[in-house]
Amino acid sequence: MTLANCDRVSEIRIRGWRHAYRGLMPQPYLDRLSVTADAERRRARFAEGNGSVVNLVAERDGAVVGWAAHGPYRDGGTHTGDAELYALYVDPARIGGGIGRALLAEAAERCQAHPRMLLWVLKDNAPARRFYERAGFRPDGAEEPFEVDGVPVPEVRYVRTPGG
Question: How far apart are CA 12 and CA 64, in angstroms?
Answer without folding.
Answer: 9
